[in-house]
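Components:
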Amino acid sequence: MPTEQEIKTAMQAYIDRFNEDDLEGILSLFAEEATVEDPAGMAPIIGKAAITEFYTKVVNGKTRIHREEPIRGSRSNSGAMAIHIETHAEGSTLMIHAIEVMTFTDAGLISSMKAYWGPGDMENK
Amino acid sequence: MPTEQEIKTAMQAYIDRFNEDDLEGILSLFAEEATVEDPAGMAPIIGKAAITEFYTKVVNGKTRIHREEPIRGSRSNSGAMAIHIETHAEGSTLMIHAIEVMTFTDAGLISSMKAYWGPGDMENK
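Structure:
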């Protein structure tokens, strides 16, 4: 099992690679059979092919993730972080406030990502 | 299913009642068969009797919860919030940084609470 610090380092790498538009770098953090549920409550997408398709859309050079507080660990293979996601379009910015919870494989790869945000957590600025 | 706003209101009520040392008020937010996993990765405690025992210990007049960011919703019956928990003892304060994820029953009661924090999320001030 990865240590608490290894989990936090991987979660920070997820943010950093996202903000560098490093699609391959993001995908390399995920296990082959990983799931992504974004937002929580929607059907999860399952497996590397579907996750590749998902991040190919959202890693678009216009979207940035800002972490709001320290990443939290756990006593097992999971961590959580509060973020906001800004997507810049001409003349406006869509901001989504989210909390992401990730679990990890023994090898330290993301086995699941679940992003908590609802319609009330979006705002246009 | 409770609305996004009802979930956020219940989570804020959890904080407020905790900070008023209102043990009965906290317990009334939980469903009979609810589970509490605090910290995440430990064996969950299950059912109202065990949850009553847990909160009887932590609602002690010396512990306060501070919310750090807006409570996040979802597209289903869950919400998440970043908090820190301060426990005051003579001459020092223990601070725990945590993210709590809650799910709710159709009646709007808490069916599960999971608090993400690890040894690295504690500090003495």
